[in-house]
Amino acid sequence: MGKSDIEIAVLRHRKARIRELRHMQLLHDATISPPEEINYMERRIYMVATEGNIEAFDELLALGTAVPVLTDITPQGNTIVHLAAIYGHFRLLEHIINHERVVFRNFDPIPNYYQSLLLRPNANGDLPLHVAAAAGHAPAVIRLINYLNQLPRGMQIFLREGRQVEVGDVWVVQNNGGNTALHLALKANHQDVALRLAEVDPRVSFVPNEERASPLYMAAEAGDVLLVARMLISPVPRYEGKSVMHAAIKSKNIEILNLLLVPIRQNLINSRDEEKRSVLSYAASIGYDEGVERLLQEFSNIAYVKDPDGFFPIHSACRRGHMGALQAILQSCPDTIELLNLQGQNVLHVAAECGKNEVVKYILGNEKYANLINQKDHKGNTPLHLATMFWYPMIVHILTQDERVNLGEQNKLGFTALDAAEEWMDLNPTFRERLTWMALVCVGTPRALKLMPYDSFLAPGPQEGIIQSNEMPSAKKYKDRVNTLLLLAILVATVAFSAAFSVTKVPEGETHWYKVFVVS
Question: Which residue ranges does UniProt annotate as crossing the membrane (predicted)?
Fold first, then answer.
């Protein structure tokens, strides 16, 4: 059987693609120069460095140039000083550097072209200071700092890709990932090392890495009050990269937040995070109630700052169901209850759409917020419409039990809440969809649409299991069932939550059934 037109076209395309790839490979191979010969470190040198054996190091030196102790590197580009720093052998580190000094004692001053072992980067762009900081070896870091401070200020550091910096800038040298030695110490949670490095050069605390995180940001995020306080002493603060204010909010550390809210740093209140959220919106969204109160105490006007998604801080609190943050905002700025997002939704709309029961109850329980109950958004939807369309039966139940809720309100499509449920409900509805619909029916929610007679959907003739009635099922029929199902749903959710945090004692020899229980 012959090939179809499609098969032929695909085969022709693949052959052409293969020819193109082969041609590109040939061009690439022609431009590659022969690999440079690299002297990888001998095993005995490697063992000396990793074990910190000073006597063995001296024995290797006694062999003369037959064993190039100072010049060989590992496959990752690590020198013997890198290895001593990684493993924390600070006495061997001192011994190696002192030997290097003896070798070049005849040079006074040391020529700028000489690259000290202290300044040689490995394949990742790490200097010995980087690897010592990452490993958290404080004695090694202290000695490296002392030796680096003794080098001539004009000496050049030859970095990857032909870059050069002076020794005086060694503290802000970044590896291939954009990390300084201080970044690496913070990533590994070595506070003592981080404090040492932050004191050497105030600039390094404000250098962002490739992830746009400065050491100051990382310290604030970790909730390290001592380190943040030390970094902020800097006479040359540059708040670049990720917002340090958001980091303080994330750590939920009020001491760090207070350090950042002093008058000389007031401009930080206007910071935005990667999602362009304001400081207050972020605090409200994570439920940091104390932070929300503190921010509003200093800058109440930020409650009226809108995020790019159209949400104000009060909406962020409602969306996440954080009652404390909501109440703090309303206490400081009562009129924020009137704020609408880009969809024209008030806080009750947002809470209903996001399924936040407690927020809905709180708003309904305050008579002064009664005007929100039947308010419509830009599409004409009331909070009841949204709770219905997003299938939150408990909120539908809460709203429909409030006699102030107008069950017959129509949106711009001409739908009541019941119409909306029947418009979007699947023919084989889920439990939540079915329960939402029943919650609407049981309170007599009207329809705006004129429906066909109920009996027109019944099959003719007596059939087992089919209701033989010409009457629409009554609201009374569903009321008790809805209450029972809602109670059941709450119980199931409560039991499931409790089970997730309960450790079952497993009888000896019954581990198989325990595994079945956990998986289920």
Answer: 482-503
